[in-house]
Design goal:
heterodimer; A: about 280 residues; alpha/beta; Rossmann fold; 6-stranded mixed sheet; 4-stranded antiparallel sheet; 8 helices; about 40% helix; B: about 400 residues; alpha+beta; 11-stranded mixed sheet; elongated
Chain lengths: ~280, ~400
């Protein structure tokens, strides 16, 4: 059964005017240039856009691997800027699961040890770690490959191991950076089925992809351009509007509401335009 | 945290195992450093123990009077360890010997006057052969055993000598030389006794009795142009309990005889061996400091390899951080690895050091000492090295930016 996002529950991720600058002086460049985004629990978001538009940077900031230069990021209602590096690592360990394009398994550890690795940082004992990792690998039909080394598996199998590793901690948010980037189309769809399955079980998934055909698995598609959100297929109007309206930032509530209305109409236009372009490209 | 530590240890083992040759060579550096320090300490402790054992074996009723003042703890004692101070006039005289003999509770007195000179018979003895002029009581006080014949005796003619077994072989070619004649500084002496081998060149008298020629004090004076030059007087009290009282009496008597001048030192028990022990410990300390340089080189080896390891595993650091490792987790992981190398090298070094010390001791007259102080020194050194030289690479690893690390080529 598909779990639909509940607009009444507080958003899991809330970004407001998020900026990330690289370089200084002449070389100054904004990878993210004022991102406003609200993500509810249980959403499956696909982020698309051309190379260098800031998708991965956004994902890294959401995953607490990087920090923004400016703007607010609230995770589960808590401002990330106020959290210590230690606390952020704990959140990564307990709440966030990463899936990378290049799999990022540790080559000198075998499959089961790779999957058990996140549990180490939760302070779980070796036997229990391996039991949990084994159970997770069984879900991905890899229980016969437990003691293989990463280089002995195919690309699709390796990515399934990486997904198993991302899930072993039972995180509430899964961040996938081009999870199918290194896979053939058949393996890609297998992986996407797995992610879709996870989404149905109530996980929040944020996936960066270059492949438009994979967006069909997502419940919401965001396209980015030059460090900004270009189009968003789903605008959770009611709740974020109210939240945004309550903010003292950005002038009076009435003005804010007008601004948001403006923005949403622009988004709809752009979404239609992109849909048309998409159709044309298919033709 | 407990599990994490256990995991770090497993991880370190795995990482060291996967780079066996590299880890082995790094450990070898530490092993050599720790082994050389262990060897030096074990041998020097062995040498000091020899003297300590001798003093203990003398059943605690021996006191030694030496000319001049020595403070028991001063390093200047090192220069006084050797009583061969031929250039200085001794403050102890023949008259003192007579006085000491009459002090209450003093059972035996043996002055020591050590001369050097040519000792010759069929062949010439080595130039460092000690010629000891003393009284017959030395046999009792220093527990000397006669293998053949007798010790020098006041009733026998003055021109007789008791010689060490090795000296007998050196000059006569045999240790059965009773009745044979040899010359000291051209003056003929007849051998009346051969000493049993002691194999103890290091002792509180600083005389190797195996190579010594022992003559009476009168003969010694004749060899020294009629002058007594007493470097040490050994005194034995009638019982252990009376030794302190005897020393008090000796002090009083000698101060009066020396017109109130305290120009002598009375040593008992460990004080007797202390200057010699200190000398050994100082020499050992200096050699250990030189060996410490090799340890330093070993430590730099650890740091070097750890830096290489951190650079090689940058991507792994990024992955671990993405999976929830804190900076402290990464620091501890690499620190345990360097600690394991230091400790492994240290334990191997300790074992090798002792094997080496036992090997060397087969050519020496004493055995190395196995004691917990050396274990602690070896372990502390290796743990300190592992930590100190591993800390910088570990901190460097922990400070790596996770995003940069993940971008690193695998």
């Amino acid at each position: 059964m598909k779990v639909m996002p509940n607009p009444d529950s507080p958003p899991v991720i809330e970004l407001h005017d998020l900026k990330k600058r690289f370089g200084i002086g002449d070389a100054e460049h904004f990878a993210l240039d004022g991102i406003d985004l609200v993500i509810q629990k249980g959403e499956f978001i696909a982020i698309m856009g051309p190379s260098g538009c800031g998708k991965t940077t956004l994902l890294n900031i959401i995953g607490l691997l990087d920090c923004s230069t400016d703007g607010d990021y609230n995770l589960d209602g808590r401002a990330v800027a106020t959290l210590s590096a230690h606390r952020q690592a704990r959140i990564r360990s307990q709440q966030i699961g990463f899936i990378f394009q290049s799999f990022n398994l540790i080559s000198r550890l075998n499959i089961i040890e790779n999957v058990a690795l996140p549990l180490t940082y939760k302070g779980i004992g070796r036997t229990k770690r391996l039991t949990l990792a084994s159970a997770m690998l069984r879900n991905f039909h890899l229980n016969e490959r437990e003691y293989y080394m990463p280089y002995q598996l195919s690309g699709g199998q390796t990515q399934r191991v990486a997904i198993a590793r991302a899930l072993v901690n039972q995180p509430s948010i899964i961040l996938a950076d081009e999870p199918t980037g290194n896979l053939d189309s058949r393996s890609s769809h297998v992986i996407m089925e797995e992610l879709s399955d996870l989404h149905k079980r109530g996980n929040t998934i944020i996936m960066v992809t270059h492949n438009p055909s994979l967006t069909t698995y997502a419940s919401r598609v965001i396209t980015m351009l030059d460090g900004r959100v270009d189009t968003d297929t789903h605008t959770p109007i009611e709740k974020p509007l109210l939240i945004a309206a309550k903010r003292p930032l950005g002038g009076s509530p009435a003005l804010k509401a007008i601004k948001l209305k403006d923005r949403s109409s622009r988004r709809t236009r752009k979404a239609k335009k992109s849909h048309r372009t998409h159709e044309m490209s298919h033709k | 945290m407990r599990f994490l530590l256990l995991n770090h240890i497993q991880n370190a083992r795995q990482s060291l195992h996967s780079n066996r040759l590299r880890s082995g060579l790094t450990m070898l550096g530490v092993t050599i450093g720790v082994a050389s320090i262990t060897t030096i300490l074990a041998l020097s402790a062995g040498a000091s123990k020899v003297i300590g054992d001798q003093v203990d074996a003398l059943s605690g009723n021996i006191a030694v009077i030496r000319p001049g003042i020595t403070s028991p703890d001063s390093l200047s004692n090192l220069t006084l360890a050797n009583p061969h101070r031929d250039f200085a006039a001794s403050s102890l005289t023949e008259a003192d010997i007579a006085l000491i003999s009459n002090v209450a509770h003093v059972e035996a007195v043996a002055p020591l006057m050590v001369l050097s000179g040519t000792v010759k018979a069929d062949s010439v003895a080595p130039s460092e052969t000690p010629i000891v002029a003393t009284s017959p009581e030395l046999e009792l006080i220093s527990n000397l055993k006669v293998q053949d014949g007798q010790f020098i005796d006041s009733t026998v003619d003055q021109d007789t000598a008791t010689i060490g077994a090795q000296l007998s072989i050196d000059i006569f070619g045999t240790d059965h030389s009773i009745g044979k004649t040899f010359t000291i500084r051209g003056k003929p002496f007849t051998v009346i006794g051969i000493l049993k081998r002691t194999n103890n060149p290091i002792n509180y008298n600083s005389i190797d009795f195996d190579t010594a020629a022992i003559v009476s004090l009168t003969s010694g004076k004749q060899l020294n142009q009629g002058l007594p030059q007493i470097q040490q007087i050994n005194v034995r009290s009638d019982s252990v309990t009376n030794l302190n009282e005897a020393i008090i009496n000796l002090n009083k008597t000698l101060i009066v005889a020396h017109h109130g001048e305290h120009d002598f030192t009375i040593l008992t028990g460990n004080q007797i061996s202390q200057p010699t022990s200190q000398l050994f410990y100082t020499i050992a300390g200096l050699t250990a400091a030189v060996a410490g340089i090799s340890l330093l080189v070993g430590g730099i080896g650890i740091m070097n390899i750890m830096l290489v390891s951190v650079a090689e595993r940058t991507r792994e650091i990024g992955i671990r951080k993405a999976l929830g490792a804190t900076n402290a987790d990464i620091t501890i992981q690499f620190l345990i690895e360097s600690l394991a190398m230091g400790l492994g090298g240290g334990i191997a070094g300790y074992v090798v050091g002792y094997l080496l010390a036992f090997g060397i001791s087969t050519f020496l007259t004493f055995d190395p000492v196995l004691n917990w102080e050396i274990v602690i020194v070896a372990l502390t050194l290796s743990v300190t090295m592992g930590t100190v030289f591993g800390l910088y690479p570990a901190i460097r690893a922990a400070r790596k930016d996770p995003i940069e690390s993940l971008r690193e080529y695998n």
